């Protein structure tokens, strides 16, 4: 999972597989295939990003 900072937004990518309720929550932030954009003009939804990070970790294969 990667983060990048831009002049007007923060991007998070790739989008991990998520449940339907979480997919609904991230929908306003979708920007292209596999990328979320969080505008800096609004509060950053850290709790949402934390849940995305948890989904990303859960989707990774275990050895």
Write structural notes for this entry:
There is one protein chain. By secondary structure, this protein is an alpha+beta fold. 33% of the residues lie in helices and 21% in strands. It has helices at residues 20-26, 46-59, and strands spanning 2-5, 9-13, 36-39. It has a three-stranded antiparallel beta sheet with strand order 1-2-3, with no helix packed on it. The protein starts with a strand and ends with a helix.
Q: Into which percent range does the helicity of residues fall? A: 25-40%
Q: Strand-and-helix sequence, N→C? A: EEHEH
Q: Unreliable runs, pLDDT <50, ≥5 residues?
A: none
Tell me about the biggest sheet? Answer: 3 strands, antiparallel
Multimeric organization: single chain
Using the CA coordinates, give the radius of gyration: 12 Å
* SS-derived structural category: alpha+beta
Spatial gap, N to C terminus: 19 Å
Q: Beta fraction of the residues?
A: 15-25%
By DSSP (H or I, 4+ residues per run), the number of helices equals 2
SSE layout and pairings?
Elements: E1 2-5, E2 9-13, H1 20-26, E3 36-39, H2 46-59
Antiparallel strand pairs: 1-2, 2-3
In short:
With 63 residues, the protein is an alpha+beta fold.
Characteristics:
63 residues, alpha+beta, three-stranded antiparallel β-sheet, 2 helices, 3 strands, 33% helix, globular, YdhG-like domain-containing protein
